[in-house]
Recover the amino acids of this structure.
């Protein structure tokens, strides 16, 4: 046996000796955790408080109150142009609201062109409005499910993102959202998104800045059924 092989053997013998004398720390048996089961009101309150903690703006309203609350937000934020998806249920409602309130509504721009064409204009819009797939109370997050009508750019580029969340689609946990939403059956989009607040980064001189990698403001309308 050459010197190298002999040295290797001695090292391995020492390691085996140390291992045989070692005792692993005792750990309690891992038990299955109980998932939370909050009421609708508790889920709304929990999601609202967590999202507001990271600078999201939350508005609770009924179906009947939404139009008034929406117009108030548009006015307060001086939104002059709004990107929307006319073919969605939300888009149809916004379009009808525009038809009946021409003077108190922003210019509506329907996202009905190719990405290449929209890229030339999308940076000029004041805001966008999209639907959401649901929310997660445990983490205070929105679930966005980009589609042909509402592609990812809609919630990524405009400086103000208005998101509409139906209260009954707020889940307790992320795993519950996946299971009850049957994500495995409906087919995943290229990117499903969990969003808790506006874009923020501290890359520049370690100073917190909003709106560098996405919207500067996130406004959520939580609509509760009567």
């Amino acid at each position: 046996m050459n010197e190298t092989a002999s040295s290797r053997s001695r090292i391995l013998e020492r390691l085996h000796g140390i291992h045989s004398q070692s005792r692993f720390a005792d750990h309690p048996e891992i038990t299955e955790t109980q998932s939370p089961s909050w009421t609708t009101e508790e889920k709304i309150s929990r999601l609202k408080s967590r999202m507001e903690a990271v600078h999201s703006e939350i508005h609770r309203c009924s179906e009947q109150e939404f139009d008034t609350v929406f117009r108030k937000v548009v006015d307060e934020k001086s939104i002059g142009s709004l990107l929307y998806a006319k073919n969605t249920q939300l888009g149809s409602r916004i379009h009808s609201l525009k038809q009946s309130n021409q003077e108190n509504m922003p210019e509506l721009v329907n996202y009905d062109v190719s990405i290449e064409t929209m890229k030339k204009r999308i940076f000029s819009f004041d805001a966008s409005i999209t639907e959401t797939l649901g929310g997660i109370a445990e983490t205070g997050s929105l679930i966005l499910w980009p589609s042909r009508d509402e592609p990812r750019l809609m919630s990524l580029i405009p400086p103000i993102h208005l998101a509409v969340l139906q209260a009954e689609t707020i889940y307790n946990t992320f795993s519950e959202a996946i299971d009850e939403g049957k994500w495995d059956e409906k087919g995943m989009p290229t990117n499903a998104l969990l969003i808790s607040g506006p874009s923020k980064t501290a890359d520049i001189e370690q100073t917190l800045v909003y709106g560098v990698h996405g919207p500067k403001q996130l406004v959520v309308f939580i609509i509760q059924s009567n």
Summary: Residues 3-21 form the longest helix (19 residues). The radius of gyration is 25 Å. The helical segments are 3-21, 40-52, 66-76, 89-100, 115-118, 152-156, 174-180, 183-186. The mean pLDDT is 88.
